[in-house]
Amino acid sequence: MVSSKGLGDSPPRQSVKQYGVTKPISVAGPTEADIQRSLELEKFLVDAGLYESKEEAIKRAEVLDRLGQIVKDWVKQLTRLRGYTDQMVEDANAVLFTFGSYRLGVHGPGTDIDTLCIGPSYVSREEDFFFILHNILADMEEVTELQPVPDAHVPVMKFKFDGISIDLLYASISLLVVPEDLDISDLSVLYNIDEPTVRSLNGCRVADQILKLVPNVEHFRTTLRCLKFWAKRRGVYSNVTGFLGGVNWALLVARVCQLYPNAVPSMLVSRFFRVYTQWRWPNPVMLCAIEEDELGFSVWDPRKNPRDRTHHMPIITPAYPCMNSSYNVSISTLRVMMEQFQYGNKICEEIELSKAQWGALFEPYLFFDSYKNYLQVDIVAVDIDDLRAWKGWVESRLRQLTLMIERDTFGKLQCHPYPHEYVDTSKQCSHCAFFMGLQRKQGEIIQEGQQFDIRGTVDEFRHSINMYMFWKPGMEIYVSHVRRKQIPSYVFPEGYKRSRPQRPVNQQQGDEACGTGSSEKRVKRKKDPEEVDVEQDKAAKRLTISPQRQDSVSPEIISHRFSSSSQECSASGSAKAKEIVEGDRKCQVGMGKMEDLVSTNVENIEMGAIGRGMRWMKTDEKGNIEPDKSDKPIPCPGNAEAGSVSNSSVVTSITSDVSSSGDVGFESVGGSSDGNTGSVEGSNILGISQGDSCEADSELLLENGCLNAKEGFQDGLHEELEVLDLSSLSLYFFLFCFCFLP
User: Fold this and answer.
1) 729, pLDDT greater than 70
2) 424, 387 contact by CB (below 8 A)
3) Catalytic one among 19, 34, 72, 101?
4) Which residue in the list 34, 167, 511, 715 is annotated as catalytic?
5) Which one of 56, 248, 283, 463 is most buried, counting C-beta atoms within 10 A?
């Protein structure tokens, strides 16, 4: 912690050492006001519960000692089994190092401990670490939630030891006996090792270098603790999602400490935002010069490596081999972070003018008030253990979905992934959900009727998810489009949705471009008969594509516009059943006239049905659609039956408002993951909670599209919704027309 005495003790100006690759921006020390603000900042951090108690600190130290003894005994056991001499068995050793927030001294209560076990050359990672040590830990009562991740970029074993979360890495170095006083910063530890081992060692090596390269370690720690807390509150703390993780924030803070060597934490926080709002990315942030590749390992160098030129926010690690620690950052996530830096800079300016308090800086980001359109990614599994593994796989690839959307829309559709998971505790299965905000790139000219077609994007994302090697029955994923008013209630901890604040004009324009029907809101005009039909027929606002079987190639789904001459549904009325025929690979989906599904003056985001299989209609030689003569039922949103299997994700077209008073719904459908013609799964996300059933009034029935009697349309979150037979439907439709239509 920082004391007032320590804050005032700044080294003389003439004795200031140059840290980093450039001279300091300022060597000025703090004023009395700066010292007072620093004390207030630290009090705020203490009150926020960011420091662990003495009891927890003691318990962590005991757990590390116990774990250190376990790995030593494990290596001695392997040495004896391999037939080495008694002297070798006695000398056999393994050492445990920490890195990450614990090593840097900025960990808080409940945070995990990043640990690295270094063993001799004859103890392997694949067999000895992930098999023998894994079994030793699995038999211990103190160890729970044991999860090996051998195929990760940095292989790791995750578990809890006596309630303390541990991330354990392993590195086998080219020594027969590992000395107890091993200097991990020495380059000799990198001799004759592979790339995964280098990455495992680099966590500790980078943490040690950071502490050596900052002018004042205590000021660095307080500032880093503050900014990590700020990043979590503002939704920009997550390396896997495409934002920044712990080491990234540590490197950014360390560079600011180098640029202002005599500054105290309150000054460093303010200078942090001042520096990085003006930073000209992709110029790299470096704490020291990049070392040459002495041992042949690849280092970050955009002059030699074409891939390094594509990095948007390079933050270079200070230990050899120097790497870009923030390669996950995309154009969209960089945009979000720059907006948050601007926000932080504005608040810090007000704090320095005594117009605001520190609490204002840490106001949570209102993600669900910031956009009108969202992607909802639901992840479900049979139990919590399966969900933990399945969620880790899916979450590690959500960043790819952001990159794919950027690529396929040429950067015009911006995607904001939110690094926070939400759980619907009302579900019987284990469940979590992630959300992404969607908006048009600001400054883009809005063309009337323009659409974003990301059906193929979601299809590609689904295929990448389906590559999971350890998939089990019950592991499923559903991707849905939801409007702000359709956000499920479990997202809001207060139990109710926040009131919608007045939004800036530029933000509204961005959302309007994302398919929210802004043209009707801007210009009031007389509606033609077809548009009146759309308003009256809310069933025409719902699209559902139900995958039934696996196909190796996803077909063309639904076109952006429909011709009334060739694509009119054969069934008349405003709520006709879907007509589906196995034949040519063209898919017909509709209730009512197809041309009513897309208004001629709205913008759409098209995300087609991306299932393992789907229902088809056929066309004749002239290209006309032939109606289905079979008596196939229409699926109704409901719960997945026991034993249903799916891990595919599908999304139907996202259509904007067709009037100022109505919203177009959206359905997501998941097909059978094993390729069998099993149950059909999906989620119909409307402006009601997911626990609602189809037995509502007639208007809601038409909105939900529950037009089927025999075949259940199963929800990916296992909610069972009742269905209606066609005779009941006719009665409800008659009552609806009688009561509500003029």
Assistant:
1) no
2) no
3) 101
4) 167
5) 248
> What is the per-residue pLDDT for 152?
82
DSSP secondary structure of 396-439: HHHHHHHHHHHHHTTT-EEEEEEEEEE--TT-SSEEEEEEEEEE
CB 290 within 8 A of CB 258: no
Residue with tokens 């540590």: 250
* Alpha carbons 343 and 359: distance in angstroms, whole number: 14
Give the largest CA-CA distance in the chain: 96
Give the residue carrying structure tokens 């910063």: 185
Give φ, ψ of 343 to 5 degrees. -60, -50
pLDDT exceeds 60 at position 338: yes
Strand ranges for 124-202 from DSSP E: 143-149, 156-161, 164-172
Q: What are phi and psi of 61, to 5 degrees?
A: -65, -40
pLDDT digits (tens, 9 = 90+) for 116-147: 999 999 999 999 999 999 999 999 999 999 98
Number of other residues whose CB lies within 10 A of the CB of residue 298: 15
Q: Which pLDDT score, from 0 to 100, does residue 666 have?
A: 33
Per DSSP, which regions of 441-571 are E strands? 451-453, 476-483
pTM for this predicted structure: 0.68
Catalytic residue among 237, 260, 418, 422: 237
pLDDT range class, residue 16, cuts 50, 70, 90: low
Average pLDDT over residues 380-409: 90
| Contact predicate 574/597, CB 8 Å | no
Residue whose tokens read 């049905």: 609
* Catalytic-residue membership of 260: no
User: Do residues 267 and 275 lie in contact, with contact meaning Cβ atoms separated by under 8 Å?
Assistant: no
Q: Which of 72, 76, 228, 578 is catalytic?
A: 228
d(CA 553, CA 569): 26
Tally of CA atoms within 13 A in the half-sphere of 392 that contains its CB = 17
If you average pLDDT over residues 627-643, what whole number do you get?
34
697 catalytic residue (yes or no): no
Q: Which of 91, 112, 293, 584 is catalytic?
A: 112
pLDDT for residue 41: 97
Q: Check if 237 is active-site.
A: yes
Residue 627 predicted with pLDDT over 50: no
Q: Report the pLDDT value the prediction gives residue 724, as an integer from 0 to 100.
A: 34
CA distance 723 to 729: 10
Whose structure tokens read 């690979």? Answer: 585
DSSP for 333-369 reads: HHHHHHHHHHHHHHHHHHHHTTSS-HHHHTPPP-GGG
Q: Which among 127-141, 471-485, 624-638, 682-696 has the top mean pLDDT? A: 127-141
CA torsion angle for 182, 184, 187, 192 (degrees, to 10)?
A: 80
Cis bond upstream, residue 282 (ω within 30): yes
Cβ proximity of 223 and 265 under 8 Å: yes
Residue from 34, 114, 378, 424 carrying the catalytic annotation = 114
Query: DSSP per residue over 220-245, as a string?
Result: HHHHHHHHHHHHHHTT-B-TTTTSB-
Cis peptide before 30 (omega within 30 of 0): no
In one-letter notation, the amino acid at residue 453 is D
Bridge partners for 639 per DSSP: 715
**What is d(CA 437, CA 251) in angstroms, rounded to the nearest whole number?**
28
Cα separation, 366 vs 503, in Å, equals: 12
Count CA atoms closer than 13 A to 540's CA, side-chain side: 25
The terminus-to-terminus CA distance of the chain in angstroms comes to: 72
Give the Cα separation of 488 and 543 in Å (integer).
20
Query: CA 82, 87, 89, 91 torsion: positive or negative?
Result: negative
DSSP SS3 for 374:
strand
Look up 355 and say whether it is catalytic. Answer: no
Q: What is the mean pLDDT of residues 72-87?
A: 95
User: What DSSP assignment string belongs to 611-631?
Assistant: -SS---BEE-TTSPEEPP-S-
Instruction: Based on the residue annotation, tell me whether 101 is a catalytic residue of this protein.
Output: yes
